[in-house]
Amino acid sequence: MIRITDVRKRYDGAAPGEEALRGCSLEIQEGEFVAIVGTSGSGKTTLLNVIGGLDTSYSGTVEVFGRTLKTLSDGELATFRNGQIGFVFQHFSLLDHLTALENVALPFHFARETHGIDPIARATEALTDLGLGAKLNERPGNLSGGQKQRVAIARALFFKPRLLLCDEPTGSLDTKTGEQIIQTFEQLNADGYTVVIITHEARVSRAAKRLVQIEDGQIVSGEAAP
After folding, report:
1. Tell me, what's the pLDDT at 116?
2. CATH number of 2-221
3. Does residue 224 register a pLDDT over 50?
């Protein structure tokens, strides 16, 4: 479960009283597929960064799978993120000089705990599961936009996390390819992954099983789990 309680976030340099998050409280149950929607600048990405432990300079409490994130040391937080949370971004964040296989295996090389995983075997499995078994040795420049995003999703799944946090994952894709990526997230959710997606696209919102709307740093709907 994800539980956010009265979270407030103010960026350095902001005007007095100007907050990116203003007393946000939210619960997301394990296994949910949630879309967080709102206008540009509403606080969507800030909220996602707080949930994912990428930003800990806030007031209030964030608990993810029983861990209170602000109580963790930097090392503990990095280990928790790497093992429990997968991140997917709009612009893929792939390294052009690495193959698809090498990009997916990257989390292994930054992990403090690898649990005896064979990185090549695990990366191969993740890519094959997403239909990219024939593209293992291709570099990003030789892949389509949809293939690049599936490589990015495979990388997020490397350690088989319990939670996927996605920031506009279809924003750089055409309609047909975006629909394919949405179907990928639907299948991952059916397989037991908790999926939280920030989006401004109706096609993504329709796929989610629950909508949370945020405006001006406040959650205005979707607070209670169904």
Report:
1. 84
2. 3.40.50.300
3. no
